[in-house]
């Protein structure tokens, strides 16, 4: 293997229909399919550089300037895919991985998704594997479930699959960004701190303890089917309702977990109220709220309605900043000047 540095930029995605709970933790296999939109904004990026070396004694991983080891659960997930790629390439080279998030880590903005996609894409290039995106989505899935979707741009479905080895649990593009580039995601930053309950912990706790969780599985699966059709036909009314109901449903089963998982705060709830009132006053859905595993509202709307939605959100207390993400592409290779590894 050569000593070239391979650097990739990848973006997070916002799930319209979310996955929560794993039927297999080691392989990161979900109970339900999920649907998302890949985002584009210079502030919503993960940059990852990979360099292979036969002189290194072990793999080294740095995230946001800090070296991580086996005490950090991220290390074990990332090491697992490095070993898989190394085995596929029949290589003995060790990997130096340096990754940086351009936005807050662990605050519910899907930094793990962009990170997993960037890592998988960079390793694929470094080891010279030339894997197809569908296969890369299976690799990224094992670092972060939502990372499976960030391998693609535009609108994406992650199929839950049913085979025990995870071979049929992969992502694919529903439609490219050009299909519905009027859609935007207004991310309202109300808290950028690391959440107290990690997504990994939350997935396990909810699936194990929530009495409502079993009913969520069919609800989310049906929502995914309906949302795929809404995206294909650009039916915002149907999609908006699916988005809000799925978010409400996921956070309901979180609250029903024991002990309860509560990611939303007073600003989150106020945003729900403001968007609901806006839709009611308009007599139709002009915006849809959704929350990942964190308190920061994602408001899905159209460019035509952006101004009135932002005006409504200005009344929400606690919003420190707003970041607008448009529909974006999947990961891209960067040139040497943007490498995070300096020889």
Describe the structure.
- With 343 residues, this protein is an alpha+beta fold.
- The protein folds into two domains: 5-180, 2-Layer Sandwich (Ribosomal Protein S5, domain 2), CATH 3.30.230.10; 183-327, Alpha-Beta Plaits (2-Layer Sandwich).
- It contains eight helices and 16 strands.
- The protein has helices at residues 73-89, 111-126, 133-141, 199-209, 213-232, 236-256, 266-282, 306-313, and strands at 5-10, 13-17, 22-24, 29-30, 34-40, 46-53, 60-63, 66-68, 94-101, 155-158, 171-175, 183-189, 287-290, 298-302, 321-327, 332-334.
- The strands form three sheets. Strands 2, 5, 10, 11, 12, 13, 14 and 15 form an eight-stranded antiparallel sheet that branches. Strands 8-7-9-6-1-16 form a six-stranded mixed sheet.
- Strand 7 (60-63) and strand 8 (66-68) form a beta hairpin.
- The longest helix has 21 residues, at 236-256.
């Amino acid at each position: 293997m050569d000593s070239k540095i391979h650097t990739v930029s990848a973006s997070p995605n916002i799930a319209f229909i979310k996955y929560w709970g794993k039927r297999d933790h080691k392989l990161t296999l979900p109970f339900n399919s999920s649907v998302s939109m890949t985002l584009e904004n210079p502030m919503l990026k993960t940059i990852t550089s990979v360099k292979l070396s036969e002189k290194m004694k072990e793999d080294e991983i740095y995230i946001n300037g800090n070296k991580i080891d086996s005490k950090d659960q991220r290390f074990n997930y990332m090491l697992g895919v490095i070993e898989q790629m190394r085995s596929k390439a029949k290589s003995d080279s060790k990997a130096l991985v340096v990754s940086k998030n351009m936005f807050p880590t662990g605050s519910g903005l899907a930094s793990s998704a962009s990170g997993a996609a960037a890592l998988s894409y960079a390793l694929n290039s470094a080891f010279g594997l030339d894997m197809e995106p569908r296969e890369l989505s299976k690799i990224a899935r094992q670092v972060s479930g939502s990372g499976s979707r960030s391998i693609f741009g535009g609108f994406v479905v992650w199929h839950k699959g049913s085979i025990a080895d995870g071979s049929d649990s992969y992502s694919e593009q529903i439609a490219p960004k050009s299909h519905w580039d009027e859609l935007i995601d207004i991310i309202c930053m109300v808290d950028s701190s690391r959440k107290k309950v990690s997504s990994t912990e939350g997935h396990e706790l909810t699936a194990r303890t929530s009495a409502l969780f079993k009913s969520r599985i069919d609800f989310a699966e049906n929502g995914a089917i309906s949302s795929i059709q809404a995206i294909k036909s650009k039916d915002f009314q149907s999609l908006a309702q699916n988005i809000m109901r799925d978010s409400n449903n996921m956070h309901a089963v979180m609250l029903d977990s024991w002990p309860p998982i509560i990611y939303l705060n007073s600003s989150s709830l106020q945003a729900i109220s403001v968007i609901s009132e806006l839709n009611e006053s308009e007599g139709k859905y002009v915006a849809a709220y959704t929350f990942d595993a964190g308190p920061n509202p994602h408001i899905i709307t159209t460019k035509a309605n952006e101004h009135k939605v932002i005006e409504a959100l200005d009344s929400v207390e606690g919003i420190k900043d707003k970041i607008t993400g448009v529909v974006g592409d999947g990961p891209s290779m960067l040139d040497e000047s943007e490498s995070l590894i300096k020889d």
